[in-house]
Amino acid sequence: MGSMKHTQLVVVGNGMVGHKFVEALVQQAAPEHLQITVFGEEPRPAYDRVALSSWFAGTTVEELTLPEPGYYERHGVTLFTDEKVDRIDRDTRRIHTTSGRTLAYDTLVLATGSFPFVPPVANGDAAGTFVYRTIDDLEAIAAWASRGGVRAGAVIGGGLLGLEAANALHTLGLDTHVVEFAERLMPVQVDEGGGRALRSRIERLGVSVHTARATSEVVLGPDRSVAGLRFADPAHGDLDVQLVLYSAGIRPRDELARSAGLAVGERGGVVVDDELRTNDPAIYAIGEVALLQGRIYGLVAPGYDMARTLAANLVGALDTEGTTDHRFTGAELSTKLKLLGIDVASFGDSFGKAPGARCLVWDDPVAAVYKKLVVDEATGAVTGGVLVGDASAYATLLSMSRGDLPTPDDPSPLLLPAGSSDSALGAVGVTALADTSTICSCNNVVKGQICSAVADGCHTMADLKATTTAGTGCGGCQPLMKDLLQHELTAAGLDVDTSLCTHFAHTRAELYSLVRFHGHRTFTAVLANHGHPGLTDGCDICKPTIGSILASLGEGYILDGEQSALQDTNDHFLANLQKDGTYSVVPRIPGGEITPNGLITIGEVARDYGLYTKITGGQRIDLFGARVEQLPEIWTRLVDAGFESGHAYGKALRTVKSCVGETWCRYGVQDSVAMAIAVELRYRGLRAPHKIKMAVSGCTRECAEAQSKDVGIIATERGWNLYVGGNGGLRPQHAVLFAEDLDDATLIRYIDRFLMFYIRTADRLERTASWLNKIEGGLDHVRSVVMNDSLGIADELETDMANHVASYECEWKATIESPERVSRFVSFVNAPDAADPHIVFVEERGQIRPARPEEKPPAEVPVLLGAGAGAMP
Amino acid sequence: MSAVTEPLLDLTEPTIAAENRSVSVCAVDLLVPGRGVAALIDGQQVAVFLTEHHGLFAVGNHDPISDTNVLSRGITGSINGEPVVASPIYKQRFSLRTGICLDDPAYAVPVYRIETIDGMVHVHVVS
Question: How far is CA A2 from CA A320, A463, A864, in A?
């Protein structure tokens, strides 16, 4: 490899695609093999050209800039800005720049992009005319627009870029006109109906639209600057504008390639093959300058694809002696955009040109929403479409057009307004979600895909996960998937399997009752009495579930005896496992109230152990990056300073957030901080089917956001209002008002009963929100149980809670007081002082963060010794 | 989750090598039934488990799906009689007998021979 370090790679152009190319090389660790030099003619590094119009709304150049400061230097890439390459000498393989620099190359990549096409109009270069491509252009436009007398501007070109440019003028406060030569706006992407809806929406914003107009002349004022726009047909009259922006398409910047004698297309563009190679094997072209199979791709996504393809090939060629099997085979031109705040999407065979294509159209001129589905007459499958004004179904429809998702027998409901089924989503849970609602956001799986998979025979969670990939990322959507699975199976008349896992036929709620009734105290006893016959072992589902039930029923320290083997890693190490195998530490800060000395202690611990420190959403301080063997030392210091476990690792009460309340606040009517502390100390350590969050607000302004919590308490003039069942997360849900104007004692009694009833009856990993959505009888039932004791169990619920409160102890205090318990906290049993060498941090913004894979030394791959057999000790 | 798919098992390697040796890692009494510990053996990380009913097992500590050394901290159990450990990161289950991932057989972890000699747990490695 050493001999390859001198391979010289020169990139001409530092636009979005040129930068993406460098980034792709860096990601594949190519700079070790290559000396990369980049030339950009603009005075600044690459920036996000697609978001240019946001500059007028206040986005800064720094925010638009793509590379982080120092990115190129850090990766050993040399970037020359404000320096244009003006000649390629292919015989000697050298480039020459306008600053007189000469550089040899082994491989040359042209990413010179395009320039705006200015249509031939008289006085087309008058002062006050601009193109819309670079930040320099924007600065010039803004300067001109701020001149006295500049009231109105026209954009020539009503395509995608033209509408972006119109957005810019509109943001600058000018009367804005869009002039388009074709019969409709965005003629390349949308059909006539779509163009009509788009026009209607744009006109409602106050932007004037003129279609089917050919511009003939820029009218000059006395100072020979823009004073108007004249059309070829005099019947149309002049437009009274003082600024003209050209956005009528792009042309490839191929002059450098042309002068070097490379092959170019008739209408411009450097000819490349599907490996992006020009007719000179040492020279490649990517992005808007590349002409592939007679086509220029003027969108950023295909440009990025080209950049990645070429980077993979160049790195592959270096690593494996010439294996270059990545090819750019033409891009997906389906697009979804937000232009002037309006959703526009087109996908697949959007114009219905294929034989047998039939169209289904929803055209609502009142709402200015237009949707067209192209359906194949023979198969009934969606093959393309156009969406204007509401593109919420884009992901689903695109999946259908690609054949990834089956088209329903009757596709017409797919065109109905978004939310027509979503709007029914009060408290009825997963059944009310639209088919297009995302269930798994990690893998972008929508409800419709999961329902189809169930219909195709996936009747278990394992099958569903394997078939749809939903639930295989962070796993947060699994309860939602399970609900959906059960609902679909019930609807299909199939037996619903509510078994907890393969070891128990019971639900969690049933097991809770059984454990409570029989007084079981161990997992072995529960399995022997209630598990499937003959089983001697549980699994990673039933073990923690039963561990949690035993803990809820007051079985004491969770890591002693057999209980130890039931806890998942968070509970086992009393800390939150992070993605790199380290843990985070959260001391309890009841109600979010902390003394300066407390803050200093936490700061000192974080500093001494080099922990990444972050304020959480629940008014806590989270310290990240602790290794297993550090946890007891860290907690010894925290416990000595008076802190206790924050239970951030448990399916338990997490936090009670509060506002400052009537003590300080001019508007507060009750002492919300004191109530929050009292509630937090009462329910701390309470194990539950899932985490529990609470908040207390001192007045109806609700600064503690109590209505998004499992239990929310809001002060009134006469006491407290109690809210339950709020939830953030994937499906945010407001808490519902449960009872009003309660005194302190009644408030606590109701919360005791509510929480214990939830712990008794909820399913595994079910938050209060979904529990309330699903429980038979709904909120009214829960209210009558809690407030009117309709089941006659109120005393039991209160007794169970009283037992919890009485038996609470800080798990960390109990741990560090026992040398035997502390001895478990080692990375290696045979090397207690060694740290895992695979845990590597890098510094970012003055703190540590886990190293990304490319930043780590390669892991040692263990050697296989052949299959082992279990041996009894 | 990264999309690494190459299996870590190289089946062309000789299964028993001449320099094969066994290393004592800890007393068997130290192990908690149902839980694991990690051992560091010549730079290799090995997860050692004492299961409640299937005895001792040793597999690689490295979870190939999350690229972290955490398998020793997973919950053990059995799925249709197969002894398994569930990765604590994304919960995929690996057979303790074969090392193969039950949720995605494209992944596997190495398996080591393990035995108890005079009350000490010994792991067989190639070094």
Answer: 14, 48, 31
Buried/exposed code over A706-724 (b: 16+ C-beta within 10 A; e: otherwise)? bbbbbbbbbbeeebbbbbb
Measured CA to CA, the distance from residue A801 to residue A825 in angstroms comes to: 31
Q: Which helix (H) or strand (E) holds A585?
A: strand A583-585
Q: Are B93 and B105 in contact (CB under 8 A)?
A: no
Residue B40: its chain A contacts at CB < 8 A?
Answer: 827-828, 830-831, 834
| Amino acid identity, position A190 | V
Residue B9: per-residue pLDDT: 37
Interface touch A538/B77, C-beta < 8 Å:
yes
Question: Which of B15, B110, B115 lies nearest to residue A871, judging by beta carbons?
Answer: B115
State how far the Cα of A457 lies from the Cα of A735, in Å rounded to an integer: 36
**Cross-chain CB nearest to A565 (options B2, B9, B34):** B34
Sheet containing strand A612-615, edge to edge, reads A576-577, A583-585, A621-626, A612-615
CA distances, A676 to each of A450, A538, A552, A755 (Å):
41, 39, 22, 16
d(CA A357, CA A378) in angstroms, rounded, equals 9
A230-247 pLDDT, tens digit each: 998 888 889 999 999 999
- Geometric angle at alpha carbon A551, from A579 and A724, rounded to 5°: 80
- Give the tokens for residue B123: 């792991």
Of B10, B79, B97, the CB nearest to A502: B79
A328-366 per-position pLDDT tens digit = 776 667 777 777 778 888 888 888 888 888 888 888 888
Question: Considering CB atoms only, which of B26, B57, B73 is closest to A870?
Answer: B57
Alpha carbons B24 and B120: distance in angstroms, whole number: 6
Q: Which pairing describes strands A719-724 and A736-742: parallel, antiparallel, or unpaired?
A: antiparallel
A1 in contact with chain B, both atoms CB, cutoff 8 A: no
Give the dihedral sign, CA A743/A745/A748/A752.
Answer: negative
Of the partner residues A475, A539, A859, the one whose CB lies closest to the CB of residue B62: A859
Inter-chain CB pairs, A–B, below 8 Å: 195
Name the B residues in 76-105 with CB < 8 Å from any A CB.
76-80, 83-84, 86, 88-91, 93, 96-99, 103
- Give the best residue of B69, B71, B85, B123 to mutate against chain A (max A CB count within 10 A): B69
Q: Could you please report the per-residue DSSP string of A55-104?
A: GGGT--HHHHBSSPTTHHHHTT-EEE-S--EEEEETTTTEEEETTS-EEE
CA distance B102 to chain A (A): 10
Q: Report the alpha-carbon distance of residue A150 to residue A167 in Å, rounded.
A: 17
As a whole number of angstroms, the distance between CA A499 and CA A78 comes to: 61
Rounded Cα–Cα distance for residues A727 and A809 (Å): 28
Q: Which residues contact A357 (CB under 8 A, 6 or more apart)?
A: A349, A374, A375, A376, A377, A383, A384
Nearest C-alpha neighbor of A502 from the set B97, B57, B84, B58: B84
Rg, Å, chain A Cα set: 33
From chain A, pick out residues whose CB is under 8 angstroms from the CB of B105.
none
Is B55 part of the contact surface with chain A (CB cutoff 8 Å)? yes
Residues B13, A581: C-beta atoms closer than 8 Å: no
Strand partners, A87: A96
pTM to 2 decimal places: 0.54
Q: Residue B5: which pLDDT band, with cuts at 50, 70 and 90?
A: very low
Give residues with Cβ within 8 angstroms of A594, minimum separation 6: none
- On the question of pLDDT at A617 being above 60, the answer is yes
